[in-house]
Structure formats: structure tokens, C-alpha cells
From TrEMBL:
Its EC number is 2.7.8.28. It is an enzyme of class 2 (transferase). GO terms for molecular function: LPPG:FO 2-phospho-L-lactate transferase activity; magnesium ion binding. The keyword Transferase applies. This is 2-phospho-L-lactate transferase. It comes from Cryobacterium roopkundense. Keywords: Magnesium, Transferase.
Length: 328
């Protein structure tokens, strides 16, 4: 195995990749891993460019993540955001810790100086040494918004709200009718993304949110066709176990696009690559083994193994199973 490419969101993608890298370090340390990261959650806050999923992947792989939260830095303080609030500015629902702020300041400075997001990410990674190449899905801003459903009090039906506000401030509790990627029409896959997907021996869809992480990456012009053209095997890992999102509110996203919250339904939603979909293979949790016949019938090779990312060793075992299924 020479090249593995992972298409990741934030916490689920980051933790899976950490397990993958731990496994490869033991058995195939020369394998090149590239992580194409969702930037649909990016936004401007207090004049700074925030890239939540890129930072989660970078901090997780670089040993700088707040483990309990799954995002941000450990031993954080909030003095700067307290000062911003004292001016009556800022977003009370989105915390920017002081250490984390430094990352956003450096990134914003690079972007304002003319760097692309790919270049700024590469620069930040020189410090964090994540052990994989991190690529934003696109160098152009693509920001996921939700369209508010009718009869939501204090909000006007049909209005767009930034995904992060819906997710973090409202805990995905407001009904929405669709996800809209603002900026998509002017966006393209970042320079090294298409090659990383086409030339990979294995492409992994980790247990990331199928709608607003993997779905957003797939919407970027050039990425879906690269996946379909890839000479490697494409294997996905279910983020749904026993009919529920393991952490967070992915069920609210799936419901909005009319997909049942189950490992089988998400696998079938991605579809088999032989019929225009994304997957050659799909890993479900051992408790979802009953889903295997339907997946096989749809042309998706599948297997059932434990999929709880409890710690690095259990996550590394998932990566082993994903690679084995890709090679089967
Ligand atoms: P986000 O951008 O931080 O929301 O992270 P991702 O999109 O990468 O991943 C979020 C998804 O990870 C959630 O919707 C969960 O379904 C999934 N997830 C979290 N922990 C686990 C786990 O231990 N096992 C599995 N299979 N999925 C998980
Ligand atoms: Ca995210």
C-alpha cells in the first residue's frame, strides 16, 4: 500500500485518521496518507477565518486537541473572547479560546497576504506535523447553510442560516428543508485533491457526517468524478451504529435529505461505484450485521466489525478492517 486518501469532516474523520496513522506506523510507515477535509463549516467570525474541521483534524493528528470536546485546544482560556464580548461584539454561541485564536489569526494573516487556503493549511501543519498531508476540499469559500422551514418562531421561513449557527447555537433543533452550499458555483477542488483521489490505492470515507461533511466534499466540482475515476478501491466506514449517530445530531441532517438513520440506508445512499455511486465497500458495526444482505445485493461489498472509536487501538483496528475489506 503506497497511498491512502481519506475524505474527512471534523471529529469523526480526525479520530479515524489518527487510528489509521497509528496502524500504518506499525506495519507500513512509508504509506502516504492524504486527508481531504470539509471546509463547508468555515466562516468569518470577529474578522477571522475559522475552519472548524481543518483545525480539528490538524489538532487531533498533531497532538493538540481537547480530547473531551473533540475540538479546540486543551487547557484553554477565554480572556480574548470575554474582551470581545465586553465591546458588545462576537458570537456568544461560538467559543474561540485564546490558544485557538492564535491559529485563526495566523491563518487569516496568510490569507490576507495572498496565500490560498491550501498554502495556509500547509503552513500551519509545519508546526503541528500531523503525519498526513491535509488538503482543504477547495481553496474557494464554500459555506454550508440551512434553509429554515416554515412556521419557525422568530425566524422567517425560507431564510438561510449558516450551518454552524444551526448546529452549535440551535443544536440542529430548528426544522430545515435543505442544505445549501453558498459559493459552490465558483468553487473547484483544491489543486492536489483530484490527484490524491484518483491516484490513491485506497480511498476511505471515514465515519464522518454523511450529509454536511462527506456530502459537502462530494458536491465540490471535480471531486465526485475523481472518486468515480479512481483506480483505487473506495471503502466507507459507517458513522451510524444501531440506528443512531454515535455523537452529535447527524440524524437531523439525514432526516432533512430524506435518508433513514441506519448504517444500511447511509451505505445505499452513497451507492455502489458500479452504478454511479461512491462505494466499493462499506463497513458497518457488528450490531448492524443484518444490513449486510441488502448492501451486497446493491453491489457493495460489506462486513460487520466493532465501529466504536473508544481509543486509538480500537480505532486502529477499524482502519485494519477497512483496508482488509478494500483489498478483499
Ligand atoms: P464533525 O465535523 O466534527 O461533525 O465530524 P465528522 O463529520 O467527521 O464526524 C461526525 C460523525 O462521526 C457523527 O455524526 C457520528 O455519527 C460519527 N462518529 C462519532 N464517533 C463515532 C464512533 O465512535 N464510531 C462511529 N462509527 N462513528 C462515530
Ligand atoms: Ca464539521
Amino acid at each position: 500500500m503506497k497511498k491512502i486518501t481519506v475524505l474527512a469532516g471534523g471529529v469523526g474523520g480526525a479520530r479515524f485518521t489518527r487510528g489509521l496513522l497509528a496502524h500504518l506506523a506499525e506495519v507500513e510507515p512509508s504509506t502516504e496518507v492524504t486527508v481531504v477535509v470539509n471546509t463547508g463549516d468555515d466562516m468569518w467570525l470577529d474578522g477571522l477565518r475559522i475552519c472548524p474541521d481543518l483545525d480539528t483534524v490538524m489538532y487531533t493528528l498533531g497532538g493538540g486537541i481537547n480530547e473531551e470536546q473533540g475540538w479546540g485546544r486543551p487547557e484553554e482560556s477565554r480572556r480574548a473572547s470575554g474582551e470581545i464580548a465586553a465591546y458588545g461584539r462576537g458570537w456568544s454561541w461560538f467559543t474561540l479560546g485564546d490558544l485557538d485564536l492564535a491559529t485563526h489569526i495566523v491563518r487569516t494573516d496568510l490569507l490576507r497576504g495572498g496565500s490560498t487556503l491550501s498554502e495556509a493549511t500547509e503552513f500551519l501543519c509545519r508546526r503541528w506535523q500531523p503525519g498526513a498531508v491535509l488538503l482543504p476540499m477547495s481553496d474557494q469559500p464554500v459555506e454550508t447553510h440551512v434553509r429554515l422551514a416554515a412556521d419557525v418562531d422568530e425566524h422567517r421561513a425560507g431564510e438561510l442560516m449558516h450551518f454552524e449557527e444551526w448546529w452549535v447555537r440551535y443544536r440542529a433543533g430548528i426544522p430545515v428543508t435543505e442544505f445549501v452550499q453558498v459559493g459552490l458555483a465558483d468553487a473547484a477542488a483544491a489543486p492536489r485533491v483530484v490527484r490524491a483521489i484518483e491516484n490513491a490505492d485506497v480511498v476511505i470515507l471515514p465515519p464522518s457526517n454523511p450529509v454536511v461533511s462527506v456530502g459537502t466534499i462530494m458536491a465540490v466540482p471535480g471531486i465526485r468524478s475523481a472518486l468515480q475515476a479512481s483506480s483505487g478501491q473506495v471503502v466507507g466506514v459507517s458513522p451510524i451504529i444501531g440506528g443512531a449517530a454515535v455523537r452529535g445530531m447527524a440524524d437531523a441532517c439525514l432526516q432533512t435529505i430524506g435518508v433513514e438513520t441506519s448504517a444500511a440506508a447511509v451505505g445505499l445512499h452513497y451507492g455502489s461505484r458500479t452504478s454511479g455511486g461512491l462505494l466499493d465497500a462499506w463497513l458497518v458495526d457488528e450490531t448492524d450485521a443484518a444490513a449486510l444482505p441488502a448492501l451486497t445485493a446493491a453491489g457493495i461489498r460489506s462486513a460487520a466489525v466493532p465501529l466504536w472509536m473508544r481509543d486509538v487501538p480500537s480505532t486502529a483496528a477499524m482502519a485494519v478492517a477497512a483496508i482488509a475489506l478494500a483489498r478483499a
